[in-house]
Amino acid sequence: MNKLSVIKIGGNVIDNSEKLHQFLLDFTALPGDKILVHGGGKIATELGDSLGVTAKMFEGRRITDIETLRIVTMVYAGLINKNIVAQLQAKGSNAIGLTGADGNIIKAVKRPVKEIDYGFVGDLDETSVSAVALESLLKAGMVPVLCAITHDGDSQLLNTNADTIASAVAVAMAKRYETALIYCFEKRGVMRDINDDSSLVREIRLGEFDTLKAEGVVSGGMIPKLHNAFEAIKSGVEAVYIGKADELSQIDQQNFGTRLIR
Amino acid sequence: MNKLSVIKIGGNVIDNSEKLHQFLLDFTALPGDKILVHGGGKIATELGDSLGVTAKMFEGRRITDIETLRIVTMVYAGLINKNIVAQLQAKGSNAIGLTGADGNIIKAVKRPVKEIDYGFVGDLDETSVSAVALESLLKAGMVPVLCAITHDGDSQLLNTNADTIASAVAVAMAKRYETALIYCFEKRGVMRDINDDSSLVREIRLGEFDTLKAEGVVSGGMIPKLHNAFEAIKSGVEAVYIGKADELSQIDQQNFGTRLIR
């Protein structure tokens, strides 16, 4: 099987043009087939403020009313996605920018209303991602760049968590490619001591996860992140990396963040 | 050679959700390979007004400063393009929404500054369109939906006239497909008497164009439109149609607008 890297970047890279430029250079230099997934960043919130549409949040999650959906569609699928694509093209990656609606690549289900109505938010399941469509683009020599917008197959666009998209894409592609899933975030990875940069945990095996939780090495927001990563590994993804975007170039030297494996 | 239709719609369809819905149904029903090109409509101007960015025009052409480019990128490539794609998917077309940057499908040149600086506007030449990239998407069973944004290959997005894109795409594809170029606009086509709907001219051959100009049947804004259409025909496009979007379903019965042929 060919190798595939599914790489996710978030607001901390997107909001910083210097960082983004360097990341896109490193991304382009990475060998093998690649898919980039990007989140939103501050621009959507800023545009909302300018238009008098304030971001509604519940437990850290954006509530997507129809006005907010318009804004994130403009910012994620338009402004951010197309600027990333134009920059990748200039750097030599044959990028193609997509939402889940394009080529029906990711069909989501609008989140059911329970205590909270999250609005136009899409949830994914194991049937959501079309690996066939993504593979046909990769085989045409293209580099898919996915933003955090999907659709329901019935004309409705849906706002969808970019981490979830990256994971679902990696799992779907793992049947066809030897797939690595790479999350770029603010920290270097899992740290034994949050104040000591040299305490980075280089590798965690699935069987060690419970011990590290018990020891408190993995705590707080890192627990669900690693839980989801190991779920992807259980579903066939070869390895999940969690690290800093500006260290991506060192991934081939096994020198990037924390590597999670079976 | 397989048949291909390149169809362009403008603001009068995009701004009217009923019309757009019907058009997308008719578009989906059209047999053969298809590419849709869409313009902008009022939404970009409205968003600009809301953000205090007023549209600057010169002789009917928008001047695209950096703020305007941000707005048209959000509205054309994000809001309009992705909503059209989601609607086409629901209707059974496997649409994929693209700017010229995506897959390097259309590489433009920033318009040189002469008396007027049009800003971030892209001009096309015979090398701009990648027929290879478009063909690979068509062969993968996808329906490309192009908005009026291109790039210069050096990270810069550019605002580009949608009529020009449609024509350049049709000419580039004509070497690989038996290509028809279809412009949907406000009128039924070329009319002998502008006040008489039954006076539609069904067909104009290249050799008749000068006579119709001399007779005044073709006048005003129709002259450059038809001139460009015949240029496309001289460059290999099989036929160019000019007609009303809501009559598109009758094109197979040779009952749509004015047909221009060699």
Structure description:
The structure is a homodimer of 262-residue chains. The first copy, chain A, has 262 residues and is of the alpha/beta class. Chain A has one domain (3-261): Acetylglutamate kinase-like (Carbamate kinase, 3-Layer(aba) Sandwich), CATH 3.40.1160. Helix content of chain A is 35%, strand content 22%. Chain A has eight helices and 14 strands. Chain A has helices at residues 11-14, 17-29, 42-50, 66-91, 131-139, 162-173, 209-215, 222-234; strands spanning 3-9, 33-38, 56-58, 61-63, 95-98, 109-110, 122-123, 143-146, 149-151, 157-159, 178-185, 203-205, 239-244, 258-261. In chain A, the strands form four sheets. The first copy, chain A, has an eight-stranded mixed β-sheet, with helices on both faces. In chain A, a hairpin with a 2-residue loop joins strand 3 and strand 4. In chain A, helix 3 packs across helix 4. The radius of gyration of chain A is 18 Å and the shape is globular. The two termini of chain A are 18 Å apart. The mean pLDDT of chain A is 94. Chains A and B meet through helix 4, strand 5 and helix 5 of A and helix 4, strand 5 and helix 5 of B.
